[in-house]
Amino acid sequence: AGGDGTFLNVASQLPGGRFLVGLNTDPDRSYGHLSARSKHSNNLRYIINQIATQHVSFVRRSRIRVHMSYPGIGTERIPKFALNDVYVGETSPTRLSYLELRIDDLPPEKQKSSGLLLCTGSGSTAWGYHINALDFYRTSKMIEILKSRYGFNRDMSYEELRQVMDSFNDDFMFDPSDRRIKYVTREPLQNNVFRAINTHGFARDISVRSLCWNGKIIMDGIQRKFNFDDGVIAKFSITDEDSINAINFVD
């Protein structure tokens, strides 16, 4: 019982295949994407009774597994899972992250950026959503450019602009059971030396080599933070056996 943070903390430690039920104890201040949701969200007794009588729908949630390879030492698996997302990059938000990415079978690519975000379908409603989302200002500016440069001559109401924005943003969300990892390079540096190509997309396997000064891998928040020093390689993947089961909606 609690919020999404409580759910994430427990989900990081569970063996694959287990059931985890989240109860949002403060629905007035938290939507609770990971909790058992209901049209009677303020009636906790009702939700518990519906769960007990199995008037619920279930969802399978994928989790990201991380293996770390240390030069001259060997490889080990981080003993935690990421249910929502993983940040890879420098500890300081003011320092550029220097990473070498290998996405599935594509050639490796060196990038400088504000870090790399990897997310699951569950995380695509969280940071993975907001890192990509258009706001009303940017949507309006895009329409103005279409009008001034490309002959788009239709005036749009506030509601129509809102629909365009929502359609764009909603396209970033995907199913929690999906075994793909969505990757997003945050604010990639683009100049004559660095020209990032693979900045957004989906992958089955992702390998990242650290070229950072003080790199970190952060899983679902600062409670799960691991050093990612220069030369260390992290491999990220999703397997069906690592997934957990949860209640999605209560009738």
Describe this structure in words.
It contains five helices and 15 strands. It has helices at 4-11, 44-52, 127-130, 136-150, 158-170; strands at residues 19-20, 56-61, 65-70, 74-77, 85-90, 97-103, 109-113, 116-119, 181-185, 200-203, 205-210, 215-219, 225-227, 233-237, 244-250. The strands form three sheets. A six-stranded antiparallel β-sheet has the order 4-3-14-11-6-7, with no helix packed on it. A six-stranded antiparallel β-sheet has the order 10-9-8-5-12-13, with no helix packed on it. The model has no long low-confidence stretch (mean pLDDT 88).
Rounded mean pLDDT score: 88
Helix-and-strand structural type: alpha+beta
Distance from N terminus to C terminus (CA atoms, Å) equals 19 Å
Please give the number of β-strands. 15
> What is the subunit arrangement here?
single chain
Strand content: 25-35%
Write down the overall geometry.
flat
> What is the helical fraction, as a range of percent?
10-25%
Order of helices and strands: HEHEEEEEEEHHHEEEEEEE
Largest beta sheet: what is the strand line-up? 4-3-14-11-6-7
> What about the largest sheet?
6 strands, antiparallel
Rg result:
20 Å
Note the total helix count: 5
Residue stretches low in confidence (pLDDT < 50, at least 5 long) are none
Secondary structure topology:
Blueprint: H1 4-11, E1 19-20, H2 44-52, E2 56-61, E3 65-70, E4 74-77, E5 85-90, E6 97-103, E7 109-113, E8 116-119, H3 127-130, H4 136-150, H5 158-170, E9 181-185, E10 200-203, E11 205-210, E12 215-219, E13 225-227, E14 233-237, E15 244-250
